[in-house]
């Protein structure tokens, strides 16, 4: 009985692997499932040997990786950064919790299951946008790109105008305000010199008058 039970378990494991592989292929490529892999125990006698089925699974994995860029990128990421994919077994994770703790976790999350199921059902009821609207949005992309380019050009022109305005204001301040102040200062100095000369001449005349 032990060898037969081990063979049955191996066949069931391969069935599960093939089912999961076809689901992955459906999610990645959209290819429909070619056959139902839920085998009845009475039909397993007509199946191919285990090593041939494993070889077929490996070939199918390589075919999916070759035909899907997403799968190739994930595999490259797994090879270059394996620490991003930690392998935690369910047995180790369950061993860290007692039965009471696991029961408490399930009870605390029990209300989320119907809510999540209701939300997933409501997603199916959402209307899919028509292809015409999607095509119209796609056709607007070149126009939006042109508008974005015009906005960028206008923003650059506004920046240039701001710089030119700041330079003009600085030049106007230097010529008008500072230069005018320097001019008034020079005139005031000249007036003081003339005033000193006039006072000197008046003092000289006053002394001459007194001497006579």
Number of helices: 7
For the termini, the CA-CA separation is 158 Å
The SSE order reads: HHHHHHH
Our Rg estimate from Cα atoms comes to 45 Å
Helix and strand composition category: mainly alpha
Question: What is the β-strand count?
Answer: 0
Task: Please report which band the strand proportion falls in: under 5%, 5-15%, 15-25%, 25-35%, 35-45% or over 45%.
Answer: under 5%
List keywords for this structure.
212 residues; 0% strand; rod-shaped; 80% helix; mainly alpha
Layout of helices and strands, plus pairs?
Blueprint: H1 2-29, H2 50-67, H3 69-80, H4 90-95, H5 99-109, H6 112-125, H7 131-211
Descriptive report:
- The chain has 212 residues and is an all-alpha fold.
- The chain is built from 7 helices and no strands.
- It has helices at 2-29, 50-67, 69-80, 90-95, 99-109, 112-125, 131-211.
- The longest helix is centred in the C-terminal third of the chain and has 81 residues, at 131-211.
- It is rod-shaped and about 150 Å long.
- Residues 36-45 have low confidence and may be disordered.
Concise structural overview:
The protein has 212 residues and is mainly alpha-helical.
